[in-house]
């Protein structure tokens, strides 16, 4: 993601970056919208007695109710790229109602491409590689 962000910040390019991972500790690049500014994952986990994945899913559901404000803030004619960093637990984003709402909000406002980025050093074993390929296929056929 860092390389993509660097590319969109190059000469004659206007990029916009959205972080939708509420549990990420640090981000090595600047973001324009950060879900962590709106909601705190540890507070939601404690309030609803949830684990990490349940907390992330609940936060995305809460954030999705206000996502029209995120999309209306920037319009396609003003930007070259909008990059969205989602939680590493891909099933939380791809198979939840909030994931669908957020994806559709982008697709209805901007020309949209969904890229599943694989961490290649971690995919050196055949099992991990095949797991990533299955995830990639599920995203391909889901979208």
Automatic annotation (TrEMBL):
Main location: cytoplasm
Stored InterPro entries: Gpn, P-loop_NTPase
EC number: 3.6.5.-
Location of this chain's protein in the cell: Cytoplasm; Nucleus
Keyword annotations: Cytoplasm, GTP-binding, Hydrolase, Nucleotide-binding
Gene Ontology CC, one term: nucleus
SUPFAM superfamilies found in the cross-reference section: P-loop containing nucleoside triphosphate hydrolases (SSF52540)
GO molecular function, one term: GTP binding
Identification of the protein by name: GPN-loop GTPase
Source species of the chain: Papaver somniferum
């Amino acid at each position: 993601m860092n390389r993509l962000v660097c590319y969109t910040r190059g000469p004659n390019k206007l990029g916009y970056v959205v972080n939708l991972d509420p549990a990420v500790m640090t981000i090595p690049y600047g973001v324009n919208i950060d879900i962590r500014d709106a909601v705190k994952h540890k507070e939601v986990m404690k309030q609803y007695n949830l684990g990490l994945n349940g907390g992330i899913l609940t936060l995305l559901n809460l954030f999705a109710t206000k996502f029209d404000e995120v999309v209306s803030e920037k319009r396609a004619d003003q930007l070259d790229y909008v990059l969205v960093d989602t939680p590493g637990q891909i099933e939380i984003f791809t198979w939840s109602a909030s994931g669908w709402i957020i994806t559709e909000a982008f697709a209805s406002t901007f020309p949209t491409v969904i890229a599943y980025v694989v961490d290649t050093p971690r995919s050196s074993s055949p099992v991990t590689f095949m797991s990533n390929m299955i995830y990639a296929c599920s995203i391909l056929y889901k979208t």
